[in-house]
Inverse folding.
């Protein structure tokens, strides 16, 4: 077919896509291959000595209670960010979609969390909850008659706060998309339902929610990537993975092992495992989602 | 249009000419310097370098802030193979063994000889140079050295009925004072610390107790940690007990607890001496400083050095190396060392600077600045345990320590189990390092 488009220039199309292919190879496939290769070695930070260790990095990984802990923490974190985050944003988007006074102000006010950099968000949340100087522990202590809330020694609390911060940070993004999705739901359907005597609750679940499914599935995907990969800054600012590994997400552990402990082999093995898990989940999700979403399009 | 084009060409040509003339005239040798000094320290580093460049027109030191200590080391590691690294890099004390084993650097003690000079290393403060020496030879240039000491809030002490001129000297007193402070209702917690990992190392060193075998990794690569005994457990149990009583509030890593002390929410604080200038500036109360608290009846050691030092990259030409060396001599100069000390609270590296500070009355104006010196110069210096710890995977080991301490404080593990976990994980890290670097 391409011969028709480029008569007499059989290789021109290949030449034209060569730059993008080159970029993909140089920046994605090359480093990826290198990291798989390196996952079979241990080496000194400066690369002066390298020892082939076979699958030892992987065996260590899966027999390490810290790594399993990190995986559990990541799934808890992701579940919170995705489920709570999407539900709350959908609820807020639904409220923002009403005809109320000053809706423009609320829309902007609720969306701008997305414009805040992870660093700033992390600093805000960390200082809000700072054990000795923060506002929230102070209020909690006032209300409860002296309970001292210290997330720096309470792992569960730390994970909760970090998850809440990450959810809050993503709220703006989710709301924008839900709002756009809601505005695309044709009013006639809802009117018809109303005339037929459906309650707003029922109308929402039977009409709005199914019609939102392309948006929801897109956000599901984006939020999953966010929860797995993009919360590094927040964790680094807020907890450094502590207390006692309680908020050490997989990506954060990888960063620490690779870039702070300078253990590239071990970190490479981790990156391959994360890649494998995420791509599996992504493929499954895309399969289900495309099947369902197309149905409503 | 054409006129404008011609004009532009002429302009560019003139510029080129001017630039090439400029380089032909001066051509100072460039010395690049990667450092991790942020905040108020950044300004002081830059002003010292500016004055060096002004007084040494044949050299130009180009500083580059490369992030935290850890990030700076990572960047250095990444840049080294491609020969894009700096001439000088600042590395924190925990990275010392990594640098010694890197095969990427020139030990500082060899530089004067390479340039046909001799140099008397004894002019620097001995406990500091000891830390960065291998077999008595200095490997990196001490730059920002600090140690840990006790800070306390004299106003809170007074208000709680304690003598503001009698800070606690032992951990037993820390506990007693803590209880009094808590009972007074002035504070919710009495005590906190920065750098919990380093504070633990200090607790061992101050009682002349080793952290790891092979003389703390100083006479050979360490094979195991040796702090998991009655003494180490006592430290852990004391800290956990103080935490359970609410006296000790865990303040997180590095400098995050400073704000609580500055705000008067705790009365006693163990932190790096390099925080002194910042604390005095921020505090609205009288700041007292004293020696790191002891456990009664245990041997005397010394507090150990922390902070960073400067390492010199291998493979530079002689002119660059001369620039590096001139810069090192410059920062050791009395006036510069004094400027550095006053601006930051870090030790001035040379004995002469110390004398000048004394002569001008710096220490009598604010005695708080004297504590660090008296502490480090009054302890012993003849044992490995009091000199400091040097371990290959030290960064990772410190993290293991902090997470074990956190588990013990939160009650997730008993102090004993937490210490056992730390020992086991650290020994594995040491074993891996030996596998790579052992003969």
């Amino acid at each position: 077919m391409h011969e028709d488009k480029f008569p007499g220039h059989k290789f021109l199309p290949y030449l034209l896509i060569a730059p993008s292919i080159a970029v993909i190879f140089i920046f994605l496939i090359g480093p990826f291959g290198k990291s798989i290769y390196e996952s079979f070695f241990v080496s000194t930070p400066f690369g002066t000595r390298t020892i082939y260790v076979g699958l030892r990095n992987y065996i260590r990984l899966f027999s390490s209670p810290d790594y399993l802990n990190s995986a559990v923490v990541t799934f808890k974190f992701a579940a919170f960010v995705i489920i709570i985050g999407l539900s709350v944003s959908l609820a807020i988007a639904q409220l923002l979609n009403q005809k109320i006074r000053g809706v423009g102000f609320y829309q902007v006010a609720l969306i701008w969390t997305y414009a805040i950099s992870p660093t700033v968000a992390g600093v805000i949340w960390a200082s809000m909850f700072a054990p000795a100087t923060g506002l929230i522990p102070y209020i909690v202590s006032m209300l409860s008659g002296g309970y001292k809330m210290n997330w720096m020694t309470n792992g569960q609390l730390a994970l909760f706060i970090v998850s809440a911060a990450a959810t809050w940070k993503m709220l703006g993004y989710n709301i924008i998309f839900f709002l756009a999705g809601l505005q695309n739901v044709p009013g006639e359907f809802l009117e018809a339902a109303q005339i037929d005597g459906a309650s707003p609750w029922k109308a929402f679940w039977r009409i709005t929610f199914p019609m939102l499914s392309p948006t929801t599935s897109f956000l599901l995907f984006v939020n999953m990537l966010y929860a797995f990969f993009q919360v590094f800054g927040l964790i680094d600012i807020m907890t450094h993975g502590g207390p006692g590994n309680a908020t050490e997400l997989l990506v954060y552990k990888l960063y620490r092992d690779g870039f702070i402990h300078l253990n590239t082999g071990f970190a490479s093995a981790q990156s391959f495992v994360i890649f494998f898990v995420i791509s599996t989940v992504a493929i499954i999700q895309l399969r289900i989602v495309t099947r369902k979403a197309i149905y409503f399009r | 249009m054409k006129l404008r084009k011609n004009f532009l060409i002429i302009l560019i040509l003139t510029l080129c000419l001017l630039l090439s003339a400029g380089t032909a005239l001066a051509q100072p040798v460039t010395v690049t310097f990667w450092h991790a000094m942020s905040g108020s320290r950044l300004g002081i580093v830059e002003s010292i370098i500016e004055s060096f460049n002004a007084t040494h027109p044949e050299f130009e030191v180009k500083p580059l802030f490369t992030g935290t200590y850890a990030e700076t080391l990572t960047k250095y590691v990444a840049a080294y193979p491609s020969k894009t690294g700096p001439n000088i890099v600042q590395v924190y004390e925990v990275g010392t063994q990594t640098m010694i084993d890197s095969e990427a650097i020139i030990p500082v003690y060899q530089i004067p000889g390479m340039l046909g000079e001799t140099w008397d290393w004894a002019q620097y403060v001995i406990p500091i140079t000891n830390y960065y020496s291998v077999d008595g030879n200095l490997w990196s240039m001490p730059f920002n050295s600090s140690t840990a000491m006790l800070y306390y809030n004299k106003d809170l002490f007074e208000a709680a009925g304690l003598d503001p001129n009698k800070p606690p000297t032992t951990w037993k007193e820390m506990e007693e004072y803590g209880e009094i402070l808590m009972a007074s209702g002035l504070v919710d917690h009495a005590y906190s610390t920065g750098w919990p990992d380093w504070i633990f190392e200090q607790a061992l060193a101050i009682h002349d107790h080793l952290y790891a075998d092979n003389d703390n990794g100083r006479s050979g690569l360490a094979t195991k940690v040796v702090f998991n005994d009655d003494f180490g457990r006592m430290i852990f149990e004391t800290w956990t007990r103080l935490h359970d009583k609410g006296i000790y509030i865990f303040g997180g890593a590095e400098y995050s607890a400073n704000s609580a002390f500055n705000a008067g929410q705790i009365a006693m604080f163990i932190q790096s001496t390099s925080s002194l200038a910042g604390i005095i500036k921020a505090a609205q109360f009288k700041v007292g400083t004293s020696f790191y608290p002891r456990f009664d009846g245990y041997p005397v050691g010394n507090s150990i050095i922390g902070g960073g030092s400067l390492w010199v990259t291998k493979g530079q030409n002689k002119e660059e190396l001369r620039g590096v060396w001139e810069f090192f001599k410059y920062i050791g100069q009395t006036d510069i060392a004094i400027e550095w000390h006053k601006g930051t609270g870090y030790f001035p590296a040379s004995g002469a600077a110390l004398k000048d500070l004394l002569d001008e009355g710096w220490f009598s104006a604010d005695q708080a600045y004297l504590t660090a010196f008296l502490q480090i110069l009054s302890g012993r210096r003849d044992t490995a345990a009091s000199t400091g710890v040097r371990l290959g995977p030290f960064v990772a080991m410190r993290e293991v320590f902090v997470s074990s301490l956190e588990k013990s404080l939160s009650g997730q593990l008993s102090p004993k189990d937490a210490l056992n976990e730390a020992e086991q994980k650290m020994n594995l890290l040491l074993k891996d390092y030996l596998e790579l670097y052992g003969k």
